[in-house]
């Protein structure tokens, strides 16, 4: 099991990957990707039980579904560095003929991806279905999902939230990235989400919070706590506060870097704040 | 003229229900989901016999499509059930991204399709669903004609890997296809051989096409009748072979002429063998309240309309 320093090095390297990927093609979504880096690194390297290799059915292993597919750069980087596909392939992000489409998809057969996402609000339903399939199969492994906070404005989420509680889907851990930002501005300015935790709670979920989703130790502890609460009759929700653009000073405290790539100079500055650890692709 | 006997009027949705009952007993991977329309979909027996394989999602079709996509991960074969309107237009993006683009093995089973839904009116009568579904890459689109064929189609799609849209209806209609007829996805069925005109029909219009062909025979017109139960993939070969022989075609469907079977046939003919064609279909309109028979008459979707279209297309040969 990797120690925290190794994981911290991986976090830094993934941030470099994200920045270099979006810079190369001058498109993509660095803000939310940088904000969720600790979550992905912790999930795939410290929390989930995974088999070697990849098959679509994922029987006898934990599953993860990314609902806010636009943060594909962090997903791709962590999958590659976990060994699902060659790290060099990150070079092909958003290029023609690539398996690394702008938003994740199963269509090109990229190992590690089990559903297309990008059109928002659909991932929780899919995660619920996969969790129920696990129960039918007598498979005690868990299903994890990640959702943007702005994404909760999509009504399908609330159908899914109601369903999961009503049907005691207690092998599901849905994490909400509460960064408070969306394309047009702050979530509370665009369409107020209010108290996300309380909303899940009154819908019948067991809710816990990670106060600083950019503190690796807190994320690991929070997700392990979430894991311990599964199997008790309620779906588990983790409301995780993050800082969009975390790790790059000029990308933080703004929604401006939701879907914008850095210039050459900006990349240089951003990379200098995240020195190479495990080797660039 | 080959004669067909109505074995007793039944609704095609009951054919679906009978198919589900059989699948429940024979295929442990089949699961069913429903959005608060169990009675309408005729799946109560499946539920009674396999309660652990049934998921009641409530009035939440978008969530139902997503859950169905997720259930495939782990090897389940989900059949979703609600009205055609709520199976397609209401959840188009969920089907597009989570099912079709993601190549999930989901069977979207849609009852109360078309205008024969009747008295509930246009809010519930979708006449655009074939078009919506056939435009999705990788989606198979099936519209069987009677009870027996709907049951056979339900069994067949469980054996086919990939997303399927299965469309059926509410009213009791003639049940005339053989009980044990094997259902081959994408394979047209020749119902009556003829030489003057080809009638290509789908769904409830197939029986009407047979009645029209009989009436036309009495007028000395030899009509070939083809039952197209699979609109996508379309049996191009069967269509071309017939139209090359007859030289003209009438298509018949309970659907808008935009986006339906007729347009798919037109594409085949325009590409390989241009020929005059008439469309028995709704004419870019919504439906309305009424009995199924009244509506089929008013909107030109019965044997009389097919007959009139044949006489018209023959003049254009």
Automatic annotation (TrEMBL), chain A:
<keyword id="KW-0786">Thiamine pyrophosphate</keyword>
<dbReference type="InterPro" id="IPR005474">
    <property type="entry name" value="Transketolase_N"/>
</dbReference>
<feature type="domain" description="Transketolase N-terminal">
    <location>
        <begin position="10"/>
        <end position="268"/>
    </location>
</feature>
<comment type="similarity">
    <text>Belongs to the transketolase family.</text>
</comment>
<dbReference type="Pfam" id="PF00456">
    <property type="entry name" value="Transketolase_N"/>
</dbReference>
<protein>
    <submittedName>
        <fullName>Transketolase</fullName>
    </submittedName>
</protein>
<dbReference type="InterPro" id="IPR029061">
    <property type="entry name" value="THDP-binding"/>
</dbReference>
Automatic annotation (TrEMBL), chain B:
<dbReference type="InterPro" id="IPR009014">
    <property type="entry name" value="Transketo_C/PFOR_II"/>
</dbReference>
<dbReference type="InterPro" id="IPR029061">
    <property type="entry name" value="THDP-binding"/>
</dbReference>
<dbReference type="Pfam" id="PF02779">
    <property type="entry name" value="Transket_pyr"/>
</dbReference>
<feature type="domain" description="Transketolase-like pyrimidine-binding">
    <location>
        <begin position="10"/>
        <end position="175"/>
    </location>
</feature>
<dbReference type="InterPro" id="IPR051157">
    <property type="entry name" value="PDH/Transketolase"/>
</dbReference>
<dbReference type="InterPro" id="IPR005475">
    <property type="entry name" value="Transketolase-like_Pyr-bd"/>
</dbReference>
<dbReference type="Pfam" id="PF02780">
    <property type="entry name" value="Transketolase_C"/>
</dbReference>
<protein>
    <submittedName>
        <fullName>Transketolase family protein</fullName>
    </submittedName>
</protein>
<dbReference type="InterPro" id="IPR033248">
    <property type="entry name" value="Transketolase_C"/>
</dbReference>
